[in-house]
From TrEMBL, chain A:
GO terms for biological process: transmembrane transport. It is a multi-pass membrane protein. It comes from Motiliproteus coralliicola. It comes from the Bacteria. Pfam families: BPD_transp_1 (PF00528). Residues 118-312 form the ABC transmembrane type-1 domain. GO terms for cellular component: plasma membrane. PROSITE patterns: ABC_TM1 (PS50928). It is found in: Cell membrane. Keywords: Cell membrane, Membrane, Transmembrane, Transmembrane helix, Transport. The keyword Transport applies. Belongs to the binding-protein-dependent transport system permease family. This is ABC transporter permease.
From TrEMBL, chain B:
Its main location: membrane. Keywords: ATP-binding, Cell membrane, Membrane, Nucleotide-binding, Transport. This is ABC transporter ATP-binding protein. It is found in: Cell membrane. Pfam families: ABC_tran (PF00005).
Length: 328, 289
């Protein structure tokens, strides 16, 4: 009896492990193989492309450049720490001599490193995306609820939706420099310009998808709301928003993807200190390392775009009421 | 008895591309307080339209509805509706679904604890206290309908409107819910209008059965008073001669006087509403036996 059980368990565990290996193959090995093949084609292809800035960077050069970029970042940070330490030492000395002396800490003004630029880009894209969402979601809800408003706004949406960020940018730049005039600007003009351009381009998917989600609420739920005489706000919060959430998130994810894509172009032209400016500066710089460094930026841009989408997906899982729905 | 709900000369026309379509023509019905009235008729005869007009979801083209002497012209919680497909908000638990209604109706009239007790009381009434905090997708169809009934009852409506409340349920679940409903009705004695196409259900539950003619321009054909002692028991009634004569009367109205015209193919066996109706009430077989 016990032996029989033993054999069953061992057979079962063997079967299970075989299945586990199969799963492992599927989830890890096959994508890894795809990646390896890509790296091989890239490496062999890169060797045969000669540009005026030297050979096209292959995987090895790109790896070296990424190590360099991190090292530069660390060096810059060390410099900054040293800079502040020097100031503090100097101030301490001053205070020793004269306790009433006015001391100042001057901010460090070293050039932004690659990693700083990633940070700026992320802040800019989030600012633009949040601003766009704050406009797009309420407007989407309103035009979804009111077909008259929808008819009024739809031609405008269709007109502005396909406009490229590069077309907006000169206009936005001029408008920002005309209107955003302060002695002590909270944000740099280049930041505001990039942010507004990003917003203008990523408004539309959220707006349209929210409107579609809202207008698709089932008549039954609308009847319930009518019978209960729910006030407008309760109706929106309890019935409209939850039913529109899946479509809304589809829109938000599309918008964030567009925002990230638009941002790089906007930064290049607006000279906002971000990844786009990094790419542009490297291109202008034209050293033998430039192409490798640009390639690092390309990969980082892709990776961040992917991560942003995953974050939105996690957020959607958290907010969505229907946990059984398959989200991808 | 005094008239509680007065449906008088109600006609309704719907605009269509081929001109207006008259769905109802001159529907007159007076309902007393505490009365349980069923509307029965073939599919598409306008039963639901009558209910929707009483609910205020549709506006009558001519005539109107008076509730306690006041005209009905918009939906409201004093005419609570139990919808055929439960219409619970899928993102709220059973408790929260009832809570939404209770908060709306008793805002400022009940304290927080009173509201909680009232919600729980109503869920207990439909025997849903064990699954109060489950969401609609976690409970069965019958349970969803129970919550729908609890939500409607919790509004303390003057008239309870039920649109084929058990139409989407299997026969056994339906019988359970009918029993629950009779039990609740004994206790609360609500005024109810129920739409059904199940003959047994109509006879078992109602004080009065209103039979509707076929559309277009449907109206009330016959009204049958059901004078059976309450509480009613479905098993005892099964061979009660009065009960069977009532069933007979309804069936003869539906299948002889208002035989639905088959306009496409006379011999098509199953595809038309009448046959489906017969299936629902398991009729022809038993009738011939």
């Amino acid at each position: 009896m016990s032996r029989a059980t033993q054999t069953t368990t061992s057979v079962l565990s063997e079967y299970l492990s075989a299945e586990a290996i199969g799963n492992l193959l599927k989830t890890l090995a096959i994508p890894a193989a795809g990646l390896l093949i890509f790296l091989f084609i890239w490496a062999s292809g890169a060797k045969s492309i000669d540009t005026s800035l030297g050979q096209f960077p292959g995987p090895t050069q790109v790896y070296q450049q990424s190590v360099n970029l991190i090292a530069e970042h660390n060096a810059e940070r060390d410099k900054e720490v040293a800079f502040y330490e020097r100031q503090e030492a100097r101030n301490a000395k001053k205070l020793e001599k004269n306790p009433d002396a006015k001391v100042k800490i001057r901010p460090y003004t070293g050039k932004p490193t690659f990693i700083d630029q990633i940070g700026t880009s992320l802040i800019t894209v989030m600012a633009g995306f949040v601003a766009a969402s704050l406009i797009a979601i309420p407007v989407g809800i309103l035009i979804g609820l009111n077909s008259g408003l929808y008819s009024a706004l739809n031609p405008l949406i269709q007109l502005f939706k396909p406009v490229s960020p590069l077309a907006w940018l000169p206009l936005v730049t001029m408008v920002v420099s005309a209107l955003y005039v302060t002695d002590d600007p909270l944000f740099a003009k280049s930041f505001v310009t990039s942010m507004i351009t990003v917003s203008l381009c990523c408004l539309w998917p959220t707006m349209i998808n929210t409107a579609v989600g809202v207008s698709g609420i089932s008549q039954d739920l609308k009847n319930v709301s009518q019978v209960l005489r729910l006030p407008f706000l309760t109706h929106v919060v309890k019935i409209v928003l939850p039913s529109a959430i899946p479509m809304m998130f589809t829109g938000l994810r599309l918008s964030l993807g567009i925002a990230w894509m638009v941002l790089i172009a906007a930064e290049m032209l607006a000279q906002n200190p971000g990844l786009g400016k990094f790419v542009w500066d490297e291109f202008q710089n034209g050293s033998s390392n430039s192409l490798g460094r640009i390639m690092v930026a390309v990969l980082v841009i892709g990776l961040i775009g992917f991560l942003l989408d995953r974050i939105m997906l996690l957020l959607q899982r958290k907010v969505s009421w229907d946990k059984s729905a398959v989200l991808r | 008895m005094q008239t509680h709900l007065d449906i008088s000369q109600v006609s309704i026309e719907f605009p269509t591309p081929n001109g207006p379509f008259k769905a109802l023509d001159g529907v007159n019905l007076k309902i007393a307080k505490g009365e349980y009235v069923s509307l029965i008729g073939h599919s598409g005869c306008g039963k639901s339209t009558v209910l929707n007009i009483v609910a205020g979801l549709y506006q009558a083209t001519q005539g109107g509805v008076l509730l306690d002497g006041r005209e009905v012209n918009e939906p409201g919680p004093e005419r609570a509706v139990v919808f055929q497909n439960h219409s619970l908000l899928p993102w709220l638990s059973a408790y929260e679904n009832v809570e939404l209604a209770v908060k709306q109706v008793f805002k400022g009239k009940k304290s927080k604890t009173e509201m909680r007790d009232w919600i729980e009381h109503n869920l207990k009434l439909v025997h849903m206290e064990h699954a109060m905090h489950k969401r609609p997708d976690e409970i069965s169809g019958g349970m969803k309908q129970r919550v729908g009934i609890a939500r409607a009852l919790a509004m303390e409506p003057k008239v309870l409107l039920m649109d084929e409340p058990f139409g989407a349920l299997d026969a056994l679940t339906r019988a359970h819910l009918q029993d629950s409903l009779m039990e609740i009705q004994n206790e609360l004695n609500n005024t109810v209008i129920m739409i059904t196409h199940d003959v047994d259900e109509a006879v078992l539950l109602s004080d009065r059965i209103v039979m509707m003619t076929n559309g277009p321009a449907a109206t009330i054909g016959e009204v049958l008073d059901i004078e059976l002692e309450r509480p009613r028991n479905r098993i005892q009634l099964a061979d009660d001669p009065t009960y069977n004569s009532y069933r007979q009367a309804v069936l003869s109205f539906l299948y002889e006087k208002q035989r639905k015209v088959e306009d496409l193919d006379q011999h098509r066996p199953k595809a038309d509403p009448e046959e489906k109706l017969a299936d629902d009430s398991e009729e022809p077989a038993r009738e011939s036996a």
